[in-house]
Amino acid sequence: MRYRLFGRTGLRVSEMLLGTMTLRSVEDARRVIDVYADAGGNFLDTASAYGESEEVLGAVLGERRDRFVVATKYTLSRDAGDPNAGGNHRKNLVLSLEQSLRRLRTDYVDVLWVHLWDRHTPVEETMRALDDVVRAGKVLYVGVSDAPAWFVARANTLAEWRDWTPFSGLQVPYNLLQRDVERELLPMASGLGLTVAAWAPLAAGKLSGGTSRFDRLTGREEAVASEVRAVARELGATPAQVALAWVRASGVLPLVGARTPEQVVDCLGSGGVVLPPEAVARLSAAAPFERGFPADFIAECEASPFAFGSGQVIRPGSSAG
Fold this sequence. Notes:
Blueprint: E1 3-5, E2 12-14, E3 17-19, H1 26-38, E4 43-45, H2 51-61, E5 69-74, H3 90-104, E6 109-114, H4 123-135, E7 139-145, H5 149-162, E8 167-173, H6 185-192, E9 195-199, H7 219-235, H8 239-249, E10 253-256, H9 261-268, H10 277-286, H11 295-302, H12 305-308
Parallel strand pairs: 3-4, 3-10, 4-5, 5-6, 6-7, 7-8, 8-9, 9-10
Antiparallel strand pairs: 1-2
């Protein structure tokens, strides 16, 4: 297992992250987590809205708790009848975090994600409240999931100006069938130095052949899945490993929600799969995608001397080719 730094911090996280939402029994969770840990995996992801998952995870960790990077999320409602039981405001943050700590049987979490953008809570309130729980030692790092790029950029700019804890990670849905984040979110994350975690990297089993036999793929989905299978045969890998390797080739860490040890082993095998550039190109071409404006327009301008002249510009850290 290889490790990467979590954003602009010194925290080391494994290249494959394990989502625990679907783990419903202590016995099954222990088997899955043991296989993952034995391979060097160290990042376990849950959420306050996954109540049973948090409790199961807390029962399994025990004395090994500090060996893992334990991440949970807050935002989603704890009580649908209470208007203050959901959202990104301070009250929900404090109560959700305390609930998660009790369920996880720990006095701190390594990463607290904002689960979903809340348009009704000022970003200043969220970032200050997050900084407070970090300073209190209940949270070590913070991240954000499912939010617009402008919100994340504004939040981290405020944190920089006011000496608050910035977001170090970003969670988004990303796979060969869903590439919307390439428009704004991935470039933003690269510019801010955020680690990106991809949930649904296998598109709910559509790219691994794990969907129900009653589920029918669309023509586009079948074309992509077929290309994944073809590349897998050529490389002697499984479709899941190829699909996950494509995500990793984009600099994104796959967050997999394995239910069995066998699924974990299959996904872990993606770490040994190196896609040749032509394979990456084939897979990407199987799912035509246009970034749209302004990304495509800017790329066209950069390729023409009309915008910036004819001289070649080399960015710091890059090679002349």
